[in-house]
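--- STAGE predict ---
source: upstream dedup step, 1 unique chain passed
mode: sequence only
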Amino acid sequence: MRLGLGLDPLLYLYVSACMEVEEDSGGREIKELEKRICVMMFWDDDGVQQSNMANQLSPPFGTPIIAHQYCAPGPHPVDLIITKERSRADNFTVTDTNGNIVFTVKSNLVSIVKPRKHSFLFDSHGNPIVHLRRSIQNNVWKAFRGQSEESRDLIFTRHNSSLFQLRLKFDVFLANNVTDVCDFKIKSSWSGRWDVYIGDSNILVAQINTKLGTMFSREKYMVSVFPNIDHAFIVALILTLQL
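--- STAGE serialize ---
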């Protein structure tokens, strides 16, 4: 399939935006849109490289969902390492490849008194930026800003794509989405990798790889987030997977 400008859809980060601008205005607006095309390195389900990032330019803007400062400009992906704490498997430290702390995660202990799972994502200064809450009766997660649980502070909702599936898939709806079409989709692979796509497209924006290894009861995972994608948002999605 090819889109309006005659380019392969893998070269578009914002497929829906492209179609809307082209249909509504055409001409000059399409030229403006071409400047915003996010050309990055994509992989298909088998891990095959689809485009050469070295020869491409990243777009001049980010896609903030949590905040602008978490949208690193291109051309290279942001690689993060998630490490589970020794004492608490649901507490994490997120570092860059140089070992600098980027985020920390703290979760409550689920009990009869507190049956609902809560996790909090903190920035490198210890400020709470995301509160994740899992429902009691199903596997639905909601993310709120800061430590809030108010609907006005909702960021996204994540739930199963379907009841019966061979490989796990999760749909992610941003707070302002009132349709039945998800904004992002998380898919598992047979190799144990998790991939994050835009909606129901094949446009990959992040990968959560299998364990880097286990040392002294500390499990580590590598996360690659493509340029200009909000990596705080991606980390929040990962927390809902309960790796």
